[in-house]
Amino acid sequence: MRLRALVLLAVAVAIATVALASNARGDGDPASDYLLTQQVFLPSDATASSTAQRQLLGVVQAANRAGFAIRVAIIPSSYDLGSVTELWRQPRTYARFLSLELSFAYTHRLLVVMPNGLGFNWPNHSAVPAYRLLDAIAVPSSKNGLVTAAQSAVRQLAAAAGVRFAVPKQLPTVPQGSSHGAIVIVPALAVIAVALAGLVVLRRRRTRV
Amino acid sequence: MAGSGLALRTVVVVVVALVSGVVLLGCGASRHAVATAGIPPGLLLQARPIGKGANFRPPATGAVIGTCRRPLGPRSGVHVELFADNRVVIVPAGIGTRPPRSFVVGRVSRAACYGSLVTLEPTGLVLVRAGAPPLLSDLFQAWGQPLSARRLASFSAPAGRPVAAFVNGRRWHGTPGSVPLTAHSEIVLEVGPHVPPHTSYAFPPGT
Asked: For A140, A186, B165, B170, which has the most beta carbons within 10 A of its beta carbon?
């Protein structure tokens, strides 16, 4: 009886392991597809032609070059969330969701700007210090309000981390993407649990013989 | 006596392994809980990571479908999502457009001309010219990737589990290529483990 319970427990652990490994991260929102290779996601109707947008691209590019790894998603409308419109006007939650989506390729800072505020996430780091800064940044309701708020946020976050950078006078129009990182999702525990369960059953049979 | 000793040792080994496993799982689960706090469970169920490697990012190499015109002109949006081996496959920007192309922040800002169906961004948003809707097979032809009951771009279906298609969350029972690219459809194609399909997509204004 005891052995049977152990086998069942082992199988349960295996199932839990697989479930935990498989239900993280996602897709369906445009920003995740862009931020795989781009440092900035701009809304679908943007062409990066406005000065403010180009300045933001320049600031983010300069920050990354200076060693302050950060990517930025500008989300002015629910259309920019694709299939995850439930997260509209939830910049903090969306920042966590986006980080999970990208976590196999990008594990650094992520800034989300929506009309009602800013969201920040950096996997395995507390967001509290960042929010102390970001909570003081207002998002203007002007046309480029989100973009200018994002610029301020990146500059202040970098400064708080002791990173100084100068934005080149020649503003970029086509920023470079970045390379992919590695992802390793190995449900080794599941394999071990199943193997142990098999071992128990085998030994039980042997002892009966 | 020897048998019961062996059984006892086995039990001890298994218990130690399981306790270690549970502790490890607990750590992972709590980190997972923090990372996913506030995210609706339904979103997490539909969520998959974007696959790693070239197979998950097939480039646009196919021919332009229909008359290639400039400018782009009015279009309707269709959203297409692909899952293979429980991972997202990226639909690239530039399908159905003729080079030279200019890209701004990952989006096609200019091409020599545009066919009857195009992608300007890497999000699966397909822009279709007015008229009889093209089929999913046309999209894959313009992409330059295979699509059949057995093949989905770089991926082959496992035996007995053909490529599955869903339109607005409902299973499509014809061949995958016969799905029409009707305006504002949310189309999901899967090969491998089932992924609960999205039922809708918020299309940008003007599409």
From this structure: B165
